[in-house]
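Marked as duplicate of an earlier ticket. Keeping the data here for the record.
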Amino acid sequence: MPELAEVEAYRRLAEHHALHRRVVGVSADDLWYLKRGLSGATAAAVLTGTSFVAARRRGKLLLLDTDVGAVLGLRFGMSGRLVVDGRVNIDKLMYTTEREDPLHDRFTVAFADGGDLRMRDSRRLGGVELDPDEDRLGPDALGVGPAALGRALAASAAPLKARLMDQARLAGVGNLAADEVLWRAGLSPLRPAGSLRGPELRRLAYHLHATLADLIERGGSHAGDLAGERHAGGICPRDGTPLSRAVVGGRTTWWCARHQN
């Protein structure tokens, strides 16, 4: 599933290969995929003749700025991929097919030079919108320090993992990354989020940044040290303890009850 690490890879792909190319057409036949009242005709009218001049990311939202001020927002759901001129720079997504099928293309931007940018999504849980409300999201998880993280967690009795995945509080942390961050930080996903103080909060902030940066360089949220053991019979890669399993924040969660507390 695309989490922050995957969307950052998509951002880099767009930055390197989709900017400063004139748009000559838009194909958007899947109306379900167009959000906030957007139509294919409107998308074509706004984007045709423009060029993308910047590729940004806030959490799991990819933002492509145009030279006329309009912003194309791309959300990838559970199975979305960005494809530019046939390039796909994420080798693996969890919980979806790895088959590259053009029948799953939901939104395509054609460039004057003959290339294109495509949203390919087998499960159709992503979406495309114009001028998304970026302020609906919390600060980007890759850039928060202890103070901002403390504000995101403050006074909450919700489980720590659930609060980390609340995109309105902290943008970008998905299920796999949350388990990896908390495993590295030695913190239980079941802890009340507001119970962290001082050293624990600083430790979490450090591991949040370090883990996300590491997952980006490794090639995705599935590439963490814990990921291969997130199954029945899995053991903690650090101390060999059988992993515990529960549903936290609606998501399957794995952790080591010995060193995460």
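See parent ticket for discussion. Residues 83 and 118 are 5 Å apart (CA to CA).
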